[in-house]
Automatic annotation (TrEMBL):
Gene source species: Jeotgalibacillus alimentarius
Superkingdom of origin: Bacteria
PANTHER family: YWBE PROTEIN
InterPro entries the UniProt entry points to: DUF2196
Protein name in the entry: YwbE family protein
Organism classification: Bacteria, Bacillati, Bacillota, Bacilli, Bacillales
Length: 63
């Protein structure tokens, strides 16, 4: 799953996100979803989430 649909993402799921500072390089950060920050049902750049460790980014892959 590519992380563009909010329905695919739930708290506790393992995901890869791209942080704001990594958007140019495309470096991915792996973590567990704590909060879903995007309210719309989908987003073309990925749903924005907060990980358990506090990092915020857009989901690129859902495991």
């Amino acid at each position: 799953m590519n992380g563009q649909k909010r329905s695919d993402i739930t708290p506790g799921k393992q995901v890869d996100i791209v942080l704001k500072k990594d958007q140019r390089s495309g470096n991915l950060t792996t973590g567990t979803v704590k909060d879903i920050l995007t309210n719309s049902p989908s987003h073309p750049h990925g749903i924005k989430v907060r990980l358990e460790d506090g990092q915020v980014g857009r989901v690129k892959k859902v495991y």
